[in-house]
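Hi all, long-time lurker, first post. I run a small reading group and we've been trying to get comfortable going from sequence to structure in the token notation. Rather than ask abstract questions, I figured I'd post a concrete chain and ask someone more experienced to write out its structure so we can walk through it together at our next meeting. Sequence below, copied exactly:
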Amino acid sequence: MKKWIAVLALVVGLALAGAPEKPKVTLAVGGKSLVVYLPLTVAEQLGYFADEGLDVRIEDFKGGSAALKALLGGSADLVVGYFDHIVRLQAQGRDLMGVVLMGKYPGLVLGVRTELADKVKTPADLKGLKVGVTKPGSSTNYFVFYLLAKEGLKPTDVAIIGVGGGSSAIAAVERGQVDAISHVEPVITTLEKRGQIKVLVDTRNKEGTEAVFGGPYPAATLYTHRAFVEKNPETTQRLVNAIVRALQWMQGKSAEEVVAIMPKAYYQNDPELYTEIVRNSLGMFSENGLFPEAGPKTAYKVLSMFDEKLAAAKIDLSKTYTNAFVERALTR
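-- Answer (accepted) --
Happy to help. Here is the structure in token form:
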């Protein structure tokens, strides 16, 4: 382990004087307009990737699992998605690693349709119901499985329905296509404001995250294959530089200042509501991009509750992430 860390540090330290090895990069994301991925859009809109000499093409998918498939299939170089995918793939022999943390709180929320709120008061009451998630196999899906496992239920005790993000997810609830929904902003607050759901479980803040997961839970992350990092350390560093710069720009900014640089398509024809959502979400993002040491342990514990293969696997959690690139970005 110490030898690997030393090698990585050497690679990072020696390769950062020239041009990026891969100036054109394809980056997959599972729902670009979702607020949990806001730092990615900030970096793009403010030209931080271009400032680093990179041409970043962002491919938008309807869920983290679809974005991950793009990485595994070779059509994307990196992914912006949830950290738990890295842990699960390590158990399957895929050597993925996070290089910068964007979300220090998951922002995952479980809500039930208002007309069912009298009957569904806890995740245990979901048995036999249809639960909407961004896409089967995505982190919104894992969240449901974890909550069920805590209640002694199995993943098969509910029907998981992929509803995508944004307007399609909202429509699925409003049309009664699902009984409950596991999602993130801006979907959750929009449904709340319309009186469509009642929130049962909320990880949009520190208190909720620790109450649900028992510790820090790394969320939105820029990650890729270890082989990509080792082959393209300068490119990786520049990508991290841009994300860290975006995170730092967001610190102390008002919601109005952040919304002002967002694409108008994100507003969903209601800029006031979107501004409120951003205001309530700014505390979810990392101040510096560093992974907390206890975070991967929490993720492994949570995922192991419903994934028997993961629970039986031997995983070196120190290989699921590195802070080396972020630390360098912070000292520029």
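A couple of things your group might point at:
The first strand starts at residue 24 and ends at 29.
Residues 109-202 form a domain with the D-Maltodextrin-Binding Protein; domain 2 fold (CATH 3.40.190.10).
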